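Late entry, adenosine-5'-triphosphate complex.
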Amino acid sequence: MLFDPRPKASRSELFGRDRELELLHANVDVPIIIISGIRRIGKTSLLTVFLNEVSIPSVIIDLRDLHTNYGLRDLYNLLSKAFSSKLDKLYDVLKSISGISIRGVEVEIKWRGRGSLTLSSLFDALNRRRIIIAFDEAQKLRGPRSQEFLNALAHAYDYDRNITFVLTGSEVGLLYGFLGIDRLDSPLYGRYCFNLKLERFDRDTSQEFLKAGFRELGIDVEAEVLEKAVEEFDGIPGWLTFFGNEYARGNRDIDRIKKLAIDIALGELQNIVRERGKRYAYALRGIAEGVKTWSGLKRYIEEKEGTTISPSILYNILKNLEDMSIIHNYQFLDPIYREASLRLHIDQS
Ligand SMILES: Nc1ncnc2c1ncn2[C@@H]1O[C@H](COP(=O)(O)OP(=O)(O)OP(=O)(O)O)[C@@H](O)[C@H]1O
Ligand SMILES: [Mg+2]
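Prediction complete; structure with ligand written out below:
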């Protein structure tokens, strides 16, 4: 179903991404494939559909919940979860790896002590067969274990010809910064990767997507409503799906649906502010209110806060917001986040 809010798993449910699927099929033998794009653009869906179509065994490691200071045990827990879900396809290769035990339908990985597996040795062992290993939201691997992961990836790139890695990321600047393909001191420096950047739907595709989704459910929707939805959600498939699903379930008030979307985005922005500090709230709100210059934003934050802000701090805030794919050149990449930013609570104490 086109308006199913979960990531899509088959091509028939994935609208308008045939070209991207063909590109992935054509590049399946490149050692590292990178799928980037802002939140809700459809990376996980594209990845899942692609992996379901190729005949090569594959595994997706979902890193969304990996915390900032993760340790090897946390990462291995996610790996074992991913392996367990693919046990039927990977049983033979997994059972031959020392350091991995299979208990019933669960895979356990020895992460410390005698006979433990390093990431490199794990990749070398998996290399016995052709396999695709996908890390969804790979920028989450940044942190104290960065170097170890990048070294293992570089090692596998050079020696493990049977492995294709797919890395996705919604925080595009963070992902590329982490991989450092053009940074001399990165283990991945100079390695060729196939880059696929997912773009939002254009107006026509957005319209067609909504029409097809409603047609599938036998729901008639006025052209005016469709146009307003396309306008408000700016071609971002995740929001269009959200709208279609809400509308189909009986919520026929587009302003109310938009408000629900803004609440979700607001929750995400509040997490960022909680993690990084209230100056992020000032910056986001200033940009949402239309501040378009460095000096304008500096003045805005200083006015709100009653403190001067040093240029390097402001530079970092802007760079981080860009790297997280929230803004670019003082503009929001997703209009729903702009409106959510206008609701960020700012207490002037
Ligand atoms: N091409 C598409 N056709 C139909 N539905 C789509 C398409 N792309 C995305 N969706 C829907 O949009 C929502 C977001 O998709 P998905 O989770 O794949 O995106 P994502 O880029 O991985 O998002 P996130 O950055 O939050 O991980 C889901 O409800 C999914 O079903
Ligand atoms: Mg995703």
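Residues 17-197 form a domain with the Rossmann fold fold (CATH 3.40.50.300). Will revisit in the morning.
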